[in-house]
Amino acid sequence: MDATHYHISSFFLIGIPGLQDFHCWIGIPVFLLFVLTLLGNSVIIVTVKLEPGLQQPMYFFLCMLAVNDMALASSTAPKMLGILWFDAHRIDFNICLTQLYFIYTFCIIESAILVAMAFDRCVAICIPLCYTTILSIPMVVKIGLVDIIRAIFMVLPHPVFISKLQYYTKYVINDAYCEHMAVRLARTSIFIYRVYGISVALSVMILDLGPIATSYIKILQAVFRLSSQSTISKSMGTCATHVCTILVCYIPALFSFLIHCIVKKESRSMHIIFATLYLLVPPTVNILAYGIKTKHIGNQVVGPFFSNKKISISNKKISIYIYIF
After folding, report:
1. What is the C-alpha to C-alpha distance for residues 309 and 286, in angstroms, rounded to an integer?
2. What are the tens digits of pLDDT across the range 268-292?
3. Would residue 15 be called left, alpha or beta, if left means φ above 0 and alpha means ψ between -120 and 50 degrees?
């Protein structure tokens, strides 16, 4: 018997299926990660703005990453906390599509920023004399605008297509935020949508991971042509933080994708937890990575928690000297 259907006006987000009794406790780490993301990235942005020594393209890209991380976390964490702590499960249809749109837009922007940061390191190490000429302030602004425009137009067909579908009377979504769940409730065929979604994912991987890999191949070739061991160590040290950021960004996404493909529907809670970690953990790790690597940022991020302590950070190691009066 065919199910009756109509264009529903709202969805009911369950949260994490099978773990409803633990929602209150799960909300605590979600809240802590969200707050740390907002505060830490805000400190990074303010520090780069106020410190003359950080007025460089590398740190401008870092500020772009910080803003995007805050936007990405803000697009998911508030609604998740509403579900986990206040049983605010309902979400308007249009708001659901808006959340879906911004999540994927910010993810694509983040990937593009990582490409820009890899290009920045490649120019700085391979052709340092041309660094300021190639990566001028206008060029940095243009790169940022291109990244945003690309993401906007790549993701825009998703909510437009979903809004045109017919839906079953079933409106319950087994998730803590709007992903592709709404599409699964559709009555009409979503084959074209699936093809487009896979095409976008593959194009982002090819367009972004390809240049990143190429940049670091050139960096390694340039570094190992150097004769001084100290120069090699210093050059590799400048890339270590960015490599860490790339791994933290792409590895959770890969695990989330694999789990989504191989787990059974009964174990959907595992996929939701990994997807949540993918959205909330990388912004936090970025703060720690750049805070430790960069002296000015490290002092601003860690300083408030260690009064009357002097933190000395070098490229090779971190030395912490504590003076208690």
Report:
1. 23
2. 677 787 778 788 888 888 877 776 6
3. left
